[in-house]
Amino acid sequence: MRPVFSLLALCAVKVAAVDPLVKLSYASYRGTQLGCGVTQWMGLPYAAPPVDELRFAAPRDLDIENKEYRASSHGPTCIGVDSRPGDSSVSEDCLTLDIYAPSAASAGDALPVFFYVQGGGFSTSAKPPNGTSLVETSGGNMIVVTFTYRVGPYGFLGGVVSKPNMSKKSAPDFSANNGLKDQLKALQWVTDNIASFGGDPDHIVLGGASAGAGSVVLHMANPANNASFVGATLESASWPAMQTAEQAQWQYDNILNATGCAGEWDSLACLRELDTAAFQTNTRSKTHALPGGTAAPVYMYSPVLDGDVVRDYRYSSFYTNREHDVPVLVGDTTNEGIVFTPSSAGKSLQAADDFVASQFPEITPANLTFFHSHPQYKPLIKAGNFRGFAAQLYGDIRYVCPNLFLSWVLPSRSQNNNVWTYQWDVGSATHVAESWSVWNGYTGKNSTLKPLQTAIQAYWISFITDLDPTAAAAKYAATDAITPPAWERSANAQRQWVARRMLFSDKKAKPLAPKMESVDQDQWDACAELMDMGVQLRQ
């Protein structure tokens, strides 16, 4: 694959006098044809703007306009807890998606589709990644869809609005988990419309990183959502503690107090009447400890159990075989927790324990004492590296162990034995560090890493197109003269977990190459304990 600077320069050049026009049932959109054989449509709305009376409401259908639009720029990023009031790059009117397709594709080609959910801790948002490299490296064999969804209080405000506080009857009801509902709305839009761009609505692979992957897990765990997909890629899927909507009432009440709406008979109407800048000014800096915690968590907002899109804790759902039975590619990095762990957690063992307990208040002092002496964590404590201990335990609880759990439970609880596991150990290997290479592959900047960067992107594309990371990886890596090794499944033919995963590491002897490894026994033993505690920790 060409270096990224050459790719971007070439892809900035239009090669068609008339840009591609796609006519949908409600509007028409002109995309931009790029010089690298990729056409993009940017900023396509997939739901009505969630503003005014639609703030805190489930996403609504778009109006039929029968107009033509030029889809040449990204829509605004969804406003998050860290967004500055008045920042023009963010907005509540943010429910848009971007499509990257081969320029040669046409309606009816039925190309595989990669539908990607970016992360942000369910609280913040960022511009979705650019899908050009994936489409180009695939040789025009796939389509990429990225999108934005509501986060923070706009997308994940918990609580129940009782009848005395209900807004006027003509206004939509308060809705929980709107960020997840936005995702399902976008997925339905893709199912309904992607054929017009050359995609196959019956071959959609969901992918995500961090909270995005955690969202995909929740969609997997609830077939009642009617989400239509045939596979899933999960990068460091985030499993925060979840409350019921009723238990999260404190969130709604805190918002009322922060905005001055607490004394209003119709509190929901009061919240909806505030303009975005006023709402953000009054809520942006407000953080609170979770019930039972002593300090604010890293991320205050997360999905809640609402009896609708989230019906049970994740561990319970998968233990009882209530999930979409699809092929899965799942993994993590070696240093998941360190970027979230403050230096203050390193002051003492008690400070480390307090940090972990603030993220998962249901963990008990006895639980923490047990892990103090566990071989997975004891060396860190013995060395006085209390921040390292807190980071390792937090990373294991929220990211590593849930991913290993899926690699173990999915083959044994379903008819589908197609689960592949990995770990990324390149450089500092912090949270979702592999994602850059998945989206960009080898860019010519560091030839030493070429075998790893080329291979991981080729594996991803192969999974998207063939639902198997090995099946077509050699073809997609051929441009860089790399032959990725075969990626073994996480379970044997009898669907028994074999504790094997693909390791991408630059810590081994040169030349570098991905290779299969056994999961460290101390890691697995610690995860087995944490899996048993999963429901206790409200995961």
Automatic annotation (TrEMBL):
Name of the top EC class for this enzyme: hydrolase
GO MF terms held by the record: hydrolase activity
EC number(s) on file: 3.1.1.-
Domain called Carboxylesterase type B: residue spans: 20-493
Pfam families in the cross-refs: COesterase
InterPro entries: AB_hydrolase_fold, CarbesteraseB, Carboxylesterase_B_AS, Carboxylesterase_B_CS, Type-B_Carboxylest/Lipase
Entry keyword set: Hydrolase, Signal
SUPFAM superfamilies hit by this protein: alpha/beta-Hydrolases
Signal peptide limits: 1-17
Record-stated family: Belongs to the type-B carboxylesterase/lipase family.
Protein name in UniProt: Carboxylic ester hydrolase
